[in-house]
Design brief:
The chain has helices spanning 7-14, 49-62, 117-127, and strands at residues 3-6, 25-31, 36-42, 66-72, 75-81, 83-84, 96-103, 107-115, 134-142, 145-154. With 167 residues, the chain is α+β, with helices and mostly antiparallel strands. It starts with a strand and ends in a 13-residue tail after the last strand.
Length: 167
Amino acid sequence: MVEVYSREQLLKKYGNVKWISPYQRILALVDRRSRTVELHEFHARGKCSGGAAWEVYHYPRVSSLVISARREGARNIFTVRQARCELRLIPGIAGAGIESLEVSEDEVKVTYAGLAGGGVAATICRGLAEGVKRVEIYEHGGGSQLGRATLVLPILSKLVIGVDDTD
C-alpha cells in the first residue's frame, strides 16, 4: 500500500526524530529536449558533506540513469535521464540509488530506493526537503529492508544569461 505525504505531514510525523537527517532543499531543472533533469539536492542540514560525497560516488555506479554526478560542499548535482532501471545495490557498500525519473506537464517524479539507512534517506529524509510537493512511500526501509519512495517536485527551468563586458 502506498502512503502519500505532503512535506508538512512528514514534518509533523518525523520532524523531531533525532536520527532523521532531513535534506534542506531539492530542485529539479528540466531539459525537455534532451529528456534529462538536473537534480540539485542540498544534503542533510547543509552540513553532511560526507553523505553527499558518498552519494555522488555511488549513485552513478548503482543507477544507469545517472549521467553525471558532482558535488559542491553538501549540495549534490545529478544529471539524470528519464527512464526506469534496475538498481545494482550492494549491501553495506552501495546501498541506494535513483530507480526512475518521469516528467509530466507540471511535475517531476523521482523514485529512489535503498537498503538500510539508504532506504530511510530515500523515503523520509528527502521528503522533508523544501521543494518537495509530496512523497509517495512504497516501502519504508531501515535495517536490512529495502526502502522505496517517489518524490514529486515542481518543474523548474534553468536560465543562463551571458554578459559581454569586454569593451
